[in-house]
């Protein structure tokens, strides 16, 4: 698959996964909860075999190639593909579901997603996709506007002003702050007192 086609698929479906079946490239997406419910209901029907269920899973999830001919592959390979789809979708393993959730939590804590969440909480006219199509400067402009909206809403509702502005941490700035503190501490320490950089002193300070 060429890069443009893959980019288009990712824009449409979000997370996608790539595998290979007898040298045939196969790309699939995660199942939705609604699709999984349909699969479970389909599975409960006595009119459908496990092969029918696997075919439905693959039909829902495989986005490339279109109309994958499952009859040309042995049943074991088809079963493996269906199981892989369930696994990546988080429906066949509690461990995998937990890993997906933790990954999404880490991503939500990233600067970009924090900014998006701040805007979405105050400006319902935007969707996450709208914000993804903004430049950093435009997103930052909306974050600043969101902060003002919160400030004005607090005033209208008679709420004491609370600083709810989005605080981003610059690691280099934090390191410099710690160095400055260490220098001030060491310059004012009395004879016999350990320096701030001393490992034992840092432990006593709760570092």
Give the SSE layout:
Layout: H1 3-13, E1 16-21, E2 24-29, H2 33-44, H3 50-61, E3 62-64, H4 75-89, H5 94-108, H6 111-122, H7 128-132, H8 136-156, H9 171-188, H10 199-204
Helix pairs in contact: 2-3, 3-4, 6-8
What would you say this structure looks like, in words?
Strand 1 and strand 2 (24-29) form a beta hairpin. The chain is mostly helical and 207 residues long. Helix 2 (33-44) packs antiparallel against helix 3 (50-61). The chain contains 10 helices and 3 strands; from the N terminus they run H-E-E-H-H-E-H-H-H-H-H-H-H. The two termini are 51 Å apart. It is elongated. The longest helix is centred in the C-terminal third of the chain and has 21 residues, at 136-156.
């Amino acid at each position: 698959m060429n890069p443009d086609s893959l980019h288009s698929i990712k824009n449409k479906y979000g997370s996608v996964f790539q595998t290979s079946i007898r040298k045939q490239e196969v790309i699939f997406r995660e199942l939705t909860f609604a699709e999984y419910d349909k699969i479970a209901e389909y599975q409960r029907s006595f009119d459908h075999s496990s092969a029918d269920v696997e075919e439905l899973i693959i039909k829902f999830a495989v986005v490339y190639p279109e109309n994958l001919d499952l009859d040309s592959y042995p049943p074991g390979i088809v079963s493996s593909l269906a199981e892989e789809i369930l696994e990546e979708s988080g429906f066949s393993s509690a461990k995998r579901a937990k890993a997906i959730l933790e990954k999404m939590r880490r991503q939500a804590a990233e600067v970009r997603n924090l900014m998006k969440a701040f805007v979405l909480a105050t400006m319902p006219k935007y969707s996450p996709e709208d914000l993804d199509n903004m430049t950093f400067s435009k997103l930052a402009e909306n974050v600043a506007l969101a902060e003002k909206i919160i400030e004005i809403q607090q005033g209208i509702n008679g709420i004491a002003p609370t600083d709810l502005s989005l605080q981003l941490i610059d690691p280099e700035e934090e390191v410099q702050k710690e160095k400055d503190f260490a220098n001030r501490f060491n310059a004012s320490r009395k004879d016999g007192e350990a320096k701030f950089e001393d490992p034992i002193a840092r432990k006593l300070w709760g570092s």
